[in-house]
Amino acid sequence: MINFKKILFPVDLSAQSRAVAPSVAAMARRFRSEVVLMHVTAAPTPEPALDHFSAEAFSGIPVVRELLEGDPARQIVSYADEHQVDLIMMPTHGHGSFRALLLGSVTNKVLHDIHCPVWTGVHAEQMTAHSPDRWKGLLCAVDTDEQGESVLKWVWEFAQQQSLELQLIHAVAGADGMWTEESDPSMYEFLFHAARERLAKLQTEAGTNLDIRLLGGSVGSAVRQAAVDYDADLIVIGRGKIQGSFGRLKNSASAIIREAPCPVISI
Predict the structure, then answer these.
(1) Mean pLDDT, to the nearest integer, of 201-229?
(2) Is 143 exposed, middle or buried (0-12, 13-18, 19+ CB in 10 A)?
(3) What fold characterizes domain 6-125?
(4) By the 8 A CB rule, do 86 and 118 touch?
């Protein structure tokens, strides 16, 4: 059973962190989680500031406060591994040490090095409609590499447990500008046919039999459009093993997160 018993929430006490906090609180209530508020700085931060943030945003929720110094990415990864964190939740944008949290080196390192799922939010003004306590639709971008089976199994179990409507999509490799339906119809159809065969094999191995929508175009744009079309509240993508190479979908993780109209969980 998929359960987020311990959620790590790195905060910089900015407006962006405060905007994401309700979603973290909603997630914690949904899964009855303990929330770890982590504040990483180059210099000591007064503890009362974090205490006030905790009391303001997480009333009635078990909270652990961690004030740490050093490199944010290293501290996040180290803490998550050492304390068996089940989910990391990050704001889309931040200030100071977390300024590049979405697309910069911090997020890239965390997404590459961490073992647990990572939730990344969208812009604050878009967050309310996608709070975990209002989830209805779940979109999963499925790849056909060696990680595809585990992602498919995870998202199917998650959707069943959470009573969510699940929609699967696959961005067809090569049909993103190299070959288009207009420029080379036969090659375009071949790419889609080959993708359907790979996905059928993947579903057989995963023990699922779900409809999968195939899309052309860049991965980031394709996933965004599908999320808009299906009014998704959450997107799930895979990101590969810690020491493994990143497939086409994993290489596009930053683009998916940046363009997504709703939060993304990468596993």
Answers:
(1) 90
(2) buried
(3) Rossmann fold (3.40.50)
(4) no
